[in-house]
Amino acid sequence: MNDKTMQTETAGQTSEFMPKLVTVLREGYTGRDLRADVLAGLTVAIVALPLSMAIAIASGVGPERGLYTTIIGGFLVSALGGSRFQIGGPAGAFIVLVSACVMQIGIEGLILATFLSGLFLMVAGALRLGTYIKFIPYPVTVGFTAGIAVIIFASQMKDLFGLNLAGPEPAEIVHKVGALWAARGTVTPVAFVVALATIGLILGVKRLRPGWPNLLIAIVTAATVVAVMGLPVETIGSRFGALPRLPPIPAVPQISTGAVMAALPYAVSFTLLGAIESLLSAVVADGMSGRQHRSNIELVAQGVANVGSALFGGFCVTGTIARTATNVRAGSRGPVSGMLHALFVLGFMLVAAPLAAFIPLAALAGLLAVVAWNMAEKEEFWALVKSSKGDAMVVIVTFLLVVFRDLTEGIVVGFALGGLVFIRRMSDAAEVEAASVPDQPERGGGDRDRVVYRLHGPYFFGAAARLGTVLDRIADYPRAFVVDFSDVPFIDSSGARSFELLAHKVARKGGQLYLIGTRPEVRLTLLAQGAYEPLVQFAADLDGVDAAEAAR
C-alpha cells in the first residue's frame, strides 16, 4: 500500500468520526447562519418543552427529568453527533421500557441503566456498528413504530379520562386495558373534556396556522383555562409539586454488582432501541435535507449524551424524529440550532418553571395521544400488508410482538423474519439458463459434447439449495460441463462448496467442469472452498474452453 493510499484511508477514518459541528464551522459559519439557527432552535424548544415533560410523566418519572434529558442530552447530541440536524431528547418510543424499568428497579436503577447504555452506545460507535444498524428492514421499522404508537396511546388512557385505578397501573398492555376497564366508573368528565379540547386545539391550530407552535399554544391555553376557572383536574403541581429552576449537580450513579446485573437487561434494550431510533431519525433528516450523516460518530454522541443525562438525573436520550424534522423545516443551518434548543429549554426552567405546575395532566395526555396517532404510520402499514405476503408477515409479527411481548423481541424477531424474506427473494432471483445442451447425450462415456449453462444473480446458500439440484441433474453424463459466471456478482462459501462437489461428480464420470467469466472476488471464494485446478478449469470464455478440450 503506497503512502497516498494510506493517507486517503486515514483521512476517511478521521472524517468518519468527526462531529458535524466541526464540519459546519470549517465550511464557514456566518452571522446569517447563526440567526437562522437561533430561530430554528427556539422553534424546536417550543415543541420540545411540553413533549419532554409529557414523555417523562408517561414514563413514570417526574417532568423535571424530561427537561434534564432535553437540556443535557440534547446539547451533547447536537455538539458531538454525526448529523447536522439531529435533535436529541426523551422519545415516546422509550415510554414502555422506561416505565417498566422504574417499576422493577426504581429511579436509581433507571439512571444506572441509562449510564450503562451510554457506555454501550459509545462502544458500538467505536466498533463501527452503526453501519449495520441502518440495514434494519423497512417493514420492521414500520411495525415497530406502529406498535410503539399503540403502547403510548394506551399509557395515556388513565389521564385522558381522569381514571382512578385501584392499584398501580400495569405495564403489560393486556393487564393495563383490564385495569382501565375495571376503573371505567371513575371517569372524570372535566378531565376528558380538557383532553378533547387540547386535541382539538392542537389539530385546529396546525390546520389554520401551520407556522404557529400548536403544541405550546394548546398546553398554555389548557393550563390558563383550568387555573382561571378552578377546574377539578389533576395538574403537574398537584402530582409532582413545583419544578426546580436548575438541573441538579452532576453525580455518578451508585454502582454495585447487584445494581449492574439488575440494570443490565434494560441497558441493553435502551442501547438497541436508542441506536435504531437515532439512526432512523438521522436518515429522515438526510432525506429532508439532502445531506449525509455519519452513523458511527452519531452513536458515540448518543452514548456520551446518555452518560451526561444520567449524571444529571435524566434518562434515555435518542434522536427524535418529530423534533428533528421540525428543526429542518425551521431552516436550521447545522448543529448549533440543536445546541440552542437545549439552552432555550434551560432558560424556560430558569424563568418560568413555577408556571408548569398549572399544566393539567389531561392536556399532556391529549398531546401524547396526538403524537401517537401521528407516529403510527398507518398508510405505510397498510401498504406493506397489501404489498406481499412476506412484507405483511414481517410488519404484522413485529407489531404484535412489540405490543404484546417486548420491544427488543419485536425488533430481533422482525429482523430475522425480514432476513428470511430477503433470502427467499434473492434465491428466486437467481436463475440457471441453458445455453447449449445436446438433445440426447449417450451414456457410453465417449461423448464429449459441450454443455453450457449460464448463472444469473448472486449465488449464495439460498440459491445453492435450489439451483444445486438442477446442476446435479445436468451432470449425470460425462461431458465438458461449462458454467458461465459472467452474470454472477457474488458467491458465498456455501455456493462455492456446491461447485467443488459438482466438480468431483463430473470428474468421477470422466468429465471436466469449466467455469468461465468468473470475477476475481468470485474466483477467490471458489478457490478457498476447494474448487481449484485441475479439478476445476477456469477460462475467460468459450474459446478458452475449446483450447483446453483440444489439449485433453
TrEMBL record:
<feature type="transmembrane region" description="Helical">
    <location>
        <begin position="135"/>
        <end position="157"/>
    </location>
</feature>
<keyword id="KW-0812">Transmembrane</keyword>
<keyword id="KW-1133">Transmembrane helix</keyword>
<dbReference type="Pfam" id="PF01740">
    <property type="entry name" value="STAS"/>
</dbReference>
<dbReference type="InterPro" id="IPR001902">
    <property type="entry name" value="SLC26A/SulP_fam"/>
</dbReference>
<feature type="domain" description="STAS">
    <location>
        <begin position="451"/>
        <end position="552"/>
    </location>
</feature>
<dbReference type="Pfam" id="PF00916">
    <property type="entry name" value="Sulfate_transp"/>
</dbReference>
<feature type="transmembrane region" description="Helical">
    <location>
        <begin position="93"/>
        <end position="123"/>
    </location>
</feature>
<feature type="transmembrane region" description="Helical">
    <location>
        <begin position="263"/>
        <end position="285"/>
    </location>
</feature>
<feature type="transmembrane region" description="Helical">
    <location>
        <begin position="215"/>
        <end position="233"/>
    </location>
</feature>
<keyword id="KW-0472">Membrane</keyword>
<dbReference type="InterPro" id="IPR002645">
    <property type="entry name" value="STAS_dom"/>
</dbReference>
<feature type="transmembrane region" description="Helical">
    <location>
        <begin position="66"/>
        <end position="87"/>
    </location>
</feature>
<dbReference type="InterPro" id="IPR036513">
    <property type="entry name" value="STAS_dom_sf"/>
</dbReference>
<feature type="transmembrane region" description="Helical">
    <location>
        <begin position="38"/>
        <end position="59"/>
    </location>
</feature>
<protein>
    <submittedName>
        <fullName>SulP family inorganic anion transporter</fullName>
    </submittedName>
</protein>
<dbReference type="InterPro" id="IPR011547">
    <property type="entry name" value="SLC26A/SulP_dom"/>
</dbReference>
<feature type="transmembrane region" description="Helical">
    <location>
        <begin position="343"/>
        <end position="373"/>
    </location>
</feature>
<feature type="transmembrane region" description="Helical">
    <location>
        <begin position="393"/>
        <end position="423"/>
    </location>
</feature>
<feature type="transmembrane region" description="Helical">
    <location>
        <begin position="177"/>
        <end position="203"/>
    </location>
</feature>
